[in-house]
Amino acid sequence: MAIPLEGTPYLASRQVEQEIEARLTKLEARVADLRAGGVLDTDALRNYYGRIRFEQVAESNAIEGSTLTVRETKLAILKGITIDEQSPQYSEDARALDRAHQRLLELATIQTSTDNAEVNELHDLLLAGQVGAGMFRSSPVRITGSKHTPRKTREVITAQMEEWQAWSRQHAGIAAPIRSAILHAWLAHIHPYTDGNGRTARAVGNLQLIRNGYPPIIIKKAERERYYDCLSESDGGNLGPFLELIFDRCESSLIGLEHSVRASSSSPALETIRERQMKQLEIWNTAVHLLGQMIDLELSGAVSSVGGAGTVHLFESNLSLEDYLELCQGRSVPRSWAMQIGIRIPALPPLEALAWVGHRTGAMYHRMGQQGGPSIFWSLRNPDGFPQWISDSQHIVYGHEITSKNGNGDAWTAYVGESTYEEATTSELARKIVESLLAASAKAN
Questions:
Q1: Given 264, 298, 319, which residue is the final one in a domain?
Q2: How is residue 216 annotated by DSSP?
Q3: How many degrees, rounded to 5, is the angle at CA 76 between CA 73 and CA 80?
Q4: In CATH, what number is assigned to the domain containing residue 34?
Q5: 420: which strand partners?
Q6: Going by DSSP bridges, is the β-strand pair 389-391/401-404 parallel, antiparallel, or unpaired?
């Protein structure tokens, strides 16, 4: 199918559209298999909504600055209390967004195309009667950290939202993930409200998925910077990175739903096992974060002597327990970004590398005593745009695959090619990675 981008602020080459179509086809095939197997049915979806209810509210509000945990969010919603030592507004925001999400589930049962009336209703609920709730703004706004400046007047905003609504009605039948991404990013681009635009856009994006029988997605605070970067790209006319993010989150939600179905027969013993698994995940996350900090320290010292600059952007872990367990079983999950490294040295081309987390290869699995788990892999910036990053096929970064023993974050094993493995501590591994990046930078054309 051709992806209809006409009438939106986004343009894409046919090559990029083909890549997107391939990713979409794979996702929809998995959805079809789950439906055929009875996993993705109404009861399973209802149970999944209940399971992620408070996490979804906590994470969406956290992107906007709330510091309530999932547990505190649950208390604020169910007990109606204000959490001690937290801003009272955070508790109110949690209750308001939950009301909007519950209404969203009701709207999803109505098979229609999303229009401005639905958007305004959701916005009115999540702003809970504040000034401007459910009304397009009449004053200018600025988006913190963004180069995009939304239009100022209500007349222009209304005209843009009417165009948004017309596109929604005309393309009601396209694939839910595509529709979700376009309406979400486009609404954020217009920024029609004084406040609450992000929460409204995320709710509207989920409405498209739920209305079409998909589980809702959660964009977590941990991937806030990736989320904002993708929206910034879409503001400039490149929807590819945002589509990629939405596909990733859709795949994660399907994994979460499958785990939700399996967890329906829980027991105290299984809960104890789950707690141990969570501790293993925390050790892995801490080890990866420490590795990134050491790479940052090594890189900064190395490039400053030649007038260059090195940056290491650490992504907060967005590897859920469900994703972690899938990796331990050797199954694929959406790429979890660990860190992005950039090197800029005068008179040399810039170099960017992305470390992401996937499951251990068969060879590494055997090397680690037939124990599954996560591994770090490397990608480089894709000049074609979609996907954003492509495999480091020339292996310019040290360690084609890097992992650590489960439960031991300072004992790393790296596959360096030709059936050769090397063991290293965190500091030793950081130094070797930086040395490989500097060597690659020196050889770049």
A1: 264
A2: P
A3: 160
A4: 1.10.3290.10
A5: 417
A6: unpaired
Phi/psi at 86 (nearest 5 deg)? -125, 155
Question: Mean pLDDT: which of 162-171, 224-233, 308-317, 399-408 is highest?
Answer: 162-171
Percent of residues in the chain assigned helix, strand, coil, to nearest 5: 55, 10, 35
* Chosen domain end from 264, 294, 327: 264
CA distance 95 to 345: 50
* Partners of 337 in beta bridges: 356
Report the chain's terminal Cα–Cα distance, integer Å: 38
Interacting residues of 90 by C-beta distance below 8 A, sequence separation 6+: 61, 66, 67, 68, 76, 83
CA distance 102 to 116: 18
Structure confidence by residue, pLDDT tens digits, 145-181:
666 777 778 889 999 999 999 999 999 989 999 999 9
Q: Where does residue 393 rank: exposed (0-12), middle (13-18), buried (19+ CB within 10 A)?
A: exposed
Q: From CA 123, how far away is CA 194, in angstroms rounded?
A: 11
| Predicted TM-score (pTM) of this structure | 0.81
Residues 6+ apart with CB under 8 A from 50: none
Q: Are residues 314 and 187 in the same domain?
A: no
